[in-house]
Amino acid sequence: MPSSPHDSSYRSLLRNREFTGLYASFTLTVAAGTLSGFALGTLVSRQTRSPFLTAVSMYGATFATVLGALTLMSVADGKRPRRTLLALQGLSLAGVAAQAVPGLPLTARFALLLLLGFFQSLATGTRMGLLTEAVPASAYVPARSLMNVTSGGTAVLGFAAGAVLLARTGPEQVFAVSAALTAAALAVVAATVRERTVRPAHRPGLRQTRRTNAELFAHPARRVLLLNLWVPNGLVVGCEALFLSYAPEHAGTLLAAASAGMLLGDLAVGRLLTADQRRRCTFALRLLLSVPFLLFALHPPVPVLTAAVFLSSVGFAATLPLQEQLLSLTPEAVRGQVQGVESAGRMTWQGIGAALAGGLAQWTGPGTAVTVLAAVSVTVTLLARRGAA
Prior knowledge:
Radius of gyration: 20 Å
Number of helices: 19
Mean pLDDT: 85
């Protein structure tokens, strides 16, 4: 926890020009991803009527993030991270713009989805590595909290805007808006983030990535933290991936409620609690993440489900204290790669959760699939309690 309130305030962070640039580009990237994911999910749902393909289309990019984590994530700690981030965002811009091409086959869209996921994982590691250098260590949790809070708010607005745009235009036009936001994110990084001149002398690449990953997973405490960060979250995101199939006309409302709950949780946990308080409430937040979704077994009215989804998403704030613990166990020289691996694994498990949910829904129906995944998430949380707060 920061040594003084001044150090940890959001206002103080926003006076840091470099943090503001990373924060603004991150926000624009989240907005672009929210719009493009909702547009692709809607397009696939209309064309295929398949819960599995719809779920995978919304979260399938996360499968490719593991490839970045296993191959080239060491670029996050390379000598020129600003240039790396700009290049990766440029590639993402090209991929999102390609999604706006009318009549593009679904196979091509899914291929682009995987490619974008690969670039996204490397960009996330690079951005988080820059973040640890742009702000003092005492301000890391407030910085992540502010980014997460804004991510939740941006997602709420993104889902609402996506629903409005899709009602008036088509998915291709929404993809074009997403591409414009991605271009703006690239421009912000170029204008505000400075290049690092002092970085480790190792050469980024496959060998360095494997060496650091082996050291990461060799540490028992880090393994337990990663399990708690990845699996329960991924299964709950799988539940959310079925909203379009469970209640197509209310999916935007449910997704917005999830984003709003995440916003509130990150704001309260990251800004209002001390480090000790965050650590003590971690397990309760992890349970809160899964338990409300068990209500889907009763098929209650949509307002009740909306409240349950909102409450559940407050539990995503458990990620903050878990990430704080992981950072404390990570050598400074590889913090970018380790944060990138953590993010990539979490996103990959979101893709796994979406695939499991979609496949199960094909046989049992969306409501039953949500209930089953929520129950498994609760079970994993209980079994994995030992070794994490």
